[in-house]
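User: My collaborator sent over this chain with a note saying "see what the structure looks like." That's all I know about it. Can you take a look?
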Amino acid sequence: MPTPSLSLQSVPLTKPDGSPLTPEITLTFGASRTGLVGQNGAGKSTLLRLLSGAAPTMGHIDRQASTGMLAQAWDDLSLTVREAAGMGAALARLARIERGAPLEDDIDLADWEAPARLAEALARVGLSAVEGTPLSQLSGGQRTRVGLARLLLDAPDILLMDEPTNNLDRAGKALVSRLLAEWPGGAVVASHDRALLAQLDRIVELTPTGIHLTEGGWQAHAKARAARRSRAATELERATRAEARIQRDIQAQREKKAQRDARGRAARASGGQPKVLLDAKADRAGRTSGSDARRAARLEAAGEAARALAAAHVSPNRSLRIEAEAGRGGAVVISLEAVTLRRAGFLLGPLTFSLSAGERVALTGPNGAGKSTLMAALRGQISPASGQLATTPQLAALDQQIGDLDPNASILENLRRLAPHLTPQEAQALLARYGFRNTAANAPVGQLSGGERLRAGLAATLGGTPPALLLLDEPTNHLDIETVELLETALQSFTGALLVASHDEAFCAALGLTREIAL
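Assistant: Without extra context I'll predict from the sequence alone. Here is the result:
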């Protein structure tokens, strides 16, 4: 029996309108665990859809394996847990028999084992007594756990996972890691979770110029990526120097021609040479000039092409800098004294703590512990039920939804609304710093990818007065790794206070958080 595999032969990744995301890909997925990385919009979800059964626009996919997809979201939240896990029909048949209905022809051994199998799968993913609960009543993390239970029950040859740890706390992330470590088949995982990628067997990076495959986990890929970028930068520098040399040679040729032309005009004016000789010289000079011009055009085109080819393999420099309000030594930017918070029947507290200017603090706790509730109170969105809460007025906040942006307005319009003191030129310049240059600033927010939306949110939120305190509520959930690294670099140089709620351990470690407030 052949080893289960999915083989792509000359298959390009394309957008819904047919425009290309990558060149043609030839690649095989089998028993190994493969991580898919790349910028948002690079084609990771598109590739997963092809592997799960979608037809390619070109090329061929040889399907010698069954697949099971853990998607980013559920289409129908009215489904109960047992239905979402694929056991609804089997359990319904058993229920009819238990009520005295005749034994059905289509019932089999798997139906009789369904209750025990479902209970075991839900227990393995940390859920219990929720079989009849609609998905709409579960948290995002709990829905992901239901999806994991469905995979355990279906037992496909190859797991397909699209951002499996996005809505999970530490315990949930550990569950995904354990499932992957124990899975007997293959797996293809699109993720920006560097801790998860570190345990995989190989990494495939999708780019507009092709794929880069690295054997080993994330650390091996990051090392290979750095070496590749260094080579690309060196090649671009070499091509740029060569193009400059060509331009100097062309300019020298033009100057020599100008000198020849000047001597010819002087000779005609003097009348010291026969006309037939002067005409012959002029004809020869004309032919030489035409040949030189054609050669110069070829050299110039070749130089531009070489530099453009080298530049296509160099990642754009999208450096970010987050300015901070100068903090006074010992100044308090957050103060809570016996604060209780009530939100949708949930009670949090009493809480007593403070943050000083320049402190970098982690806000931790499992899903449902109240981190987002506390963040909402600090932002002034809900009032304490009791106690005293005070924050600095120089406060900015970002969450994974970037709720301050109007999806129907452009990036530029959102920025002008949230920072009305900026002139049109200042607004355009600020957006260019965040990667939205020229007409890109006119894109509607509703059409942006998750990472683009967060960059736009950074520009809009931080475009006004520099904050003394920055609140971050799961800011990396929808960012690709390059953008996460970009945000890390920007926050490392931020001199204001940070309060960070994030389950991304690599992100928190990069920020150098000095203490923890655990809920």
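A starting point for your reply to your collaborator: The two ends are 52 Å apart (CA to CA).
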